[in-house]
Design a protein that fits this description.
Elements lengths: L15 H13 L14 H13 L3 E5 L2 H11 L7 E5 L5 H8 L3 E5 L9 H11 L3 E5 L8 H11 L2 E5 L7 E2 L2 E2 L6 E5 L12 E5 L2 H12 L13 H4 L15 H11 L2 H19 L6 E2 L6 E2 L4 E5 L5 H13 L5 E2 L24 H8 L1 E5 L6 H20 L12
Parallel strand pairs: 2-3, 2-4, 4-5, 5-8
Antiparallel strand pairs: 1-9, 6-7, 6-11, 8-9, 10-12, 12-14, 13-14
Helix pairs in contact: 1-9, 2-9, 3-4, 3-7, 5-6, 10-13, 11-13
Length: 408
């Protein structure tokens, strides 16, 4: 049988310019963002300036991770312990984790079959809980109708934080992802669109929110060394009242990231080609529902999802095992227990989640895979052939009582 031998977790190498810049930082040893020589501008400050320009934001802050960016954003919005914070139920653990880290209460919202937040349920949850903040996860790169969402949130008095871990470089109607709400948050973890191992950004046009975020990140009253932050006058009334929650990005990661901003658009085009090849390969496979992409969404396509509607769990497990035996590593969001990076809202007991029947139906048949840029179009075509054949086999054959090895 045909077998795929590539790696679903192998990323492209860091650009040579990033390697050279990182080596320069290592040689001079000034990794801390505020440890600069006379007349030197820190790599982190330059990165923030350049990423702000890329997204069209007034202000940008580099942070230690995407989760740190979300927690910082909520603190900047003065979310307090016990406050309800809305978020889509289809997301990954760092999103509710960032809410819980503040002592706030995650309140989950149903997901649609298009893998975006259900606006009707969002309205109902907002009214039922009195929440004033929505942490909107653009999970796996699927962007909802942002015009409709922002109109609804404006009417409900909800401040929106966008989790753009999977949509850095994407846009809705020409507006960069992360630029619709009050604050946009991004990740530069290895599997994201820019790679520094760990890292994150926060962007906003609100001067007070930006100043609060800089102070929260641990600026030690050195906020004047930021190039993409408000002027010193904005900090004056805040600097003695906002706590230091140290979560800064360092100059080594910033040096690695700076050259990657300039290739984000090229990466989007290459990911799009892989994504569309996978769509073409799975189009027409009986039992598979592909996720439609709205015409106003300029997506990145760094991962791929499809649904097996109505499949019972044992048959999904049999399909996953068959694909895994042929080298195709898939994730399933309907599993009873978390597997590696893959978990769902029902697993996060600290959030005391209520049952969401619509979301459960969607996740029961949701299959997910990475599309690293180390894949070629021929690789994707082979993967699609294997998936198609294993879907047919699982749909027609007897269900084997086996557990599929799920990829991290």
């Amino acid at each position: 049988m045909e077998r795929f031998t590539g790696s679903f977790t192998q990323q492209e190498p860091i650009p040579e310019a990033g390697i050279e810049a990182a080596m320069a930082v290592l040689r001079h040893g000034r990794l801390h963002r505020y440890n600069t020589a006379p007349g030197e501008v820190a790599e982190t400050a330059l990165l923030e300036e350049e990423f702000a320009a890329y997204t069209g934001a007034k202000y940008c802050l580099g942070l230690a991770s995407g989760g740190a960016a979300m927690a910082c954003a909520m603190r900047a919005l003065q979310v307090r312990p016990g406050d309800p914070v809305l978020s889509n139920a289809f997301t990954l653990a760092p999103v509710p984790g960032s809410i819980a880290s503040l002592g706030a209460r995650p309140v989950f919202v149903e997901v649609t079959e298009d893998l975006t937040i259900d606006l009707a349920h969002l309205e109902a949850q907002a009214k039922a809980t009195g929440a004033r903040v929505l942490l909107l996860s653009h999970m796996r790169g699927h962007v909802c109708d942002m015009d409709a969402l922002m109109a609804l949130c404006d009417r409900l008095g909800l401040r929106v934080i966008e989790d753009c871990a999977h949509t850095m470089g994407a846009s809705w109607r020409g507006v960069a992802s992360g630029r619709h709400g009050a604050i946009g948050c991004y990740s530069t973890q290895t599997y994201k669109h820019m790679n520094s191992g760990e890292g994150g950004f926060l962007v906003t046009d609100d001067a007070e929110l930006a100043a609060r975020a800089v102070l929260l990140s641990g600026s030690y009253m050195l906020f004047s060394r930021h190039l993409a932050a408000p002027g010193p006058e904005v900090f004056e009334s805040l600097k003695l009242d906002v706590p230091n929650v140290s979560s800064r990005m360092d100059n080594l990661r910033a040096a690695i990231l700076r050259p990657q901003i300039g290739i984000l658009d090229d990466r989007r085009a290459r990911w799009r080609a892989l994504y569309q090849a996978m769509e073409a390969g799975l189009a027409g496979v009986a039992g598979v529902r592909l996720i439609p992409r709205p015409q106003h969404e300029d997506y990145m396509g760094s991962s791929f999802q499809f649904l097996l509607p109505g499949w019972e769990a044992a048959r999904v497990v049999s399909f996953l095992a068959g694909a895994a035996a042929r080298g195709v590593e898939l994730k399933w969001f309907g599993a009873d227990t978390p597997q590696g990076f893959t978990s769902r809202y029902a697993h996060w007991r600290y959030a005391a989640p209520e049952v969401l029947e619509q979301t459960d139906r969607v996740l029961a048949g949701l299959i997910d895979m990475r599309l690293p840029l180390t894949f070629m179009p021929d690789d994707v075509a082979q993967i699609a052939r294997i998936i198609g054949k294993e879907v047919v086999t699982a749909a027609a054959g007897a269900v084997a009582p086996v557990a599929a090895p799920l990829a991290d």
